[in-house]
Amino acid sequence: MDAGGEAVGLAAAGAQVVVAAMATDVWPAVKARFAGLFGRGHRTEQRLERSRDRLVADPAVGEAEITGWRVRLADLLEEDPQAAAGLAALIAELTPAVGLSAVQVVRQDIRTNGGASYVSGTGPVTVIGRQGERPRDDRQPG
Q: Which among 3, 8, 11, 2 is positioned nearest to 86, based on CA atoms?
């Protein structure tokens, strides 16, 4: 897996964990540690708290919050690749603490010629796919 794909997967897993933590008793500690990754402590803590407020007010926004934090974490990893180790450690430590049995990241390059591709897993699964160009049919009519 290329470094870009690894960063995207790590950001997706981190977003799942941070949003799941918003509804737990460990939230204050999680908020401070995630904010520390960004190096903009207070500003990021405020942003995390606004996300939590939206989630508490309407749990249906969970996927939107995950998407927003996935993008922010991906941007962070692009700007500071060294942050990956800290994020990976937080994910490993916090996944069970926030009630997730596992966070799996599946990256798949899909190349089909009219077929279908399926991905399955247990627990929360983030599927990151990229549809490639359709293969050329070089067969000549017979």
A: 11
Reported as half-sphere exposure (CB side, CA atoms, 13 A), residue 36 has a value of: 9
Run of H or E residues at 14: helix 3-21
112 pLDDT above the threshold of 60: no
Would you state the structure tokens that stand for residue 72, as one six-digit string?
């922010």
DSSP letter, residue 23: T
Q: pLDDT tens digits, residue range 116-134?
A: 544 444 444 444 444 444 4
Q: Name the amino acid, one letter, at 27.
A: W
**Residues 59-101 pLDDT 10s:** 999 999 999 999 999 999 999 999 999 999 888 888 877 777 5
Cβ 17 vs Cβ 29: under 8 Å: no
DSSP alpha helices (H): ranges in the chain?
3-21, 27-38, 41-57, 62-79, 83-97
Domain coordinates in residue numbering, the chain: 3-97
State how far the Cα of 30 lies from the Cα of 105, in Å rounded to an integer.
21
